[in-house]
Amino acid sequence: MITYLVAFLVALMVAMVLTLVVRNRALAWGLLDQANSSRKIHVQPIPRLGGIGMVGGFFAPLCALFLVDSGVGNHFQAQTALVWGLFGGGLGVAALGLYDDLRGAGAKLKFAVQLVLALGLYALGFRVDHIANPFGPEIPLGVLGLPFTVMWVVGVINALNLIDGLDGLAGGVAFFGVGTNFILALSNGDVVLCLMMAALAGAILGFLVFNFNPASIFMGDTGSMFLGFVLAAVSIKTSAKSGTAVAMLVPVMALGLPIMDTLLAMVRRTLVGRPMFSADKEHIHHRLMSRLVLSHRSAVLVMYGLCALFTLTALGLHWANRAQSAMLLVGMGVVVTVLMRKLGYLDLRRASGVSEVRRKNIRLRSLVKEVTDSVRSATGVKDLWAAVRPLADALEASRLELRLERQQGHHRDGLTFETQRPAGSALPLEVFLDVKGGDQKLGRFSMAWSDGRSEINRDEELALELVADALGDRAAKLLAQAEADPQRVVSLRR
After folding, report:
1. Measuring CA to CA, how many Å separate 325 from each of 157, 177, 200, 254?
2. Residues in a beta bridge with 447
3. Does the keyword Nucleus apply (predicted)?
4. Measured distance CA(18)–CA(5) in Å, rounded
5. Most C-beta atoms within 10 A of its C-beta, which of 37, 41, 187, 381?
């Protein structure tokens, strides 16, 4: 136990120091998570890249074992497949997350890298060979073991990434998962896994010192994907060494909250016709704040309580017999059902309108694709306006405006496009979105409705954000061309 405590404390201190350094450097270099999206909870720019502190904190005590001649160190170095899997894969997924935080990575690239890492884990012996069944004999997977293992690894990585929406939430959720795996590894006598979980627990707590509400730094995809990868890999090992009838159900229950949130998001977006990887404000933590009127910190603490309940259930499943396991699962099912009803996920009154919402969203997605494709092929600022102008009629807006600006010495050039149409006489509801190229503000894109609505439809809001992002990317390139060759692009001055 002394070794585990030392690993925990070393990881804690390294994570704290690294997170502090990264936070200060991110502030100095402008590497901030901007509060420029309606889906963001924070209201001011916050440094990101805090995941670097967790990654460094996790690896620091483990790397020290390669330098120390001890029984634990020799035992650790003997676990070649485990070390290669978690070191190589962990660094790989952290590098992917860091690239995404700095430059932005598309969904295809993320899934491609995650798939390769999951296949690498399978080749190293991280495999799910059977599914537990508390109501009967276990179900062997056979050739389905490979796709199931890959689905588990990729799924947990993205589940931790999706739940990272409030200060301290993803780190706290991961900490409960780490605690579960540590207890299971300890009961199995697995020294190496215990050591790894002790190090990860210290790294998480070291980061949470700066991330708990109000956060002064975010973990970013570097941290959330790294946590998901390590937890997915270690869960496979702890479940494989479990002799209970519910082996694979234990890690599923230990990570029950992020898994449940991810499944709800997939079902929700499929039913209403939203892109599977679009962002929204319908996650469990969002609904806790809106429907139960909880503060930011209170919502996180409630989620911690739910994680504690899932953890206790997972540990109970590990030591329970078949009948007890069935009772635990039924009891947890009742709790989840009550929670979903409280948060409005099972509101049947909304079911009748789902098909119409789905049809509208499919049409909206088609429109946004046409508009963004036109924006990306624009050869001048007038083409940008021509590309977005159809949105006014399609969304029944009373006014649409696009303003682009450029700094020229000590003054700014600006060009404004605007169109108006008869669409009601009520007080207008206006939505403004910044047009940004990287961190530089290039203008503003706005739309107004005078039909009496008091708030914008969430799907239309997401669509406008996509259009504004496309405008920013293309406008930045056009303005760069103008600076390189002023004769090629029409001046913004009017």
Report:
1. 27, 19, 29, 14
2. 400, 431
3. no
4. 20
5. 381
Cα separation of 418 and 401, whole Å? 4
The model's pLDDT over 355-365, given as tens digits with 9 standing for 90+, comes to: 888 888 888 88
Q: Is residue 26 part of a domain?
A: yes
**pTM of the complete model beyond 0.90:** no
322-345: pLDDT as tens digits: 788 888 889 999 999 998 888 888
Residues ≥6 apart with Cβ < 8 Å to 486:
none
Please say which residue of 234, 259, 284 terminates a domain. 259
Q: Does residue 111 fall inside a structural domain?
A: yes
Domain that holds residue 82: 2-259
Name which residue leads in pLDDT, 246 or 295: 295
Within a domain: residue 350?
Answer: no
Helix ranges (DSSP H) in 137-255: 145-162, 169-188, 191-211, 220-240, 249-254
Total residue length of the chain:
494
Secondary structure of residue 133 in the 3-state scheme: coil
In the chain, the number of structural domains is: 2
Long-range contacts of 451-456 (CB under 8 A, 24+ apart): 451/396, 451/398, 451/423, 451/424, 451/426, 452/424, 452/426, 453/429, 454/429, 455/429, 456/429, 456/431
**Cα–Cα distance, 13 to 19 (Å, whole number):** 10
| pLDDT tens track for 16-62 | 999 999 999 988 887 887 655 555 555 577 888 999 999 999 999 98
Alpha helices in 321-395 (DSSP H): 322-342, 354-376, 381-388, 390-394
Q: Which amino acid is at 397?
A: A
In whole angstroms, give the CA distance from residue 396 to residue 98. 41
In angstroms, the CA 96 to CA 118 distance is 14
Q: What are phi and psi of 172, to 5 degrees?
A: -65, -45
> What band does 80 get if pLDDT is binned at 50, 70 and 90?
confident
CB 426 within 8 A of CB 397: no
- Give the end of a domain, one of 259, 275, 302: 259
Nearest to 55 by CA among 90, 6, 81: 90
7 is a domain residue: yes
Q: List pLDDT tens digits, range 195-214.
A: 999 999 999 999 999 999 88
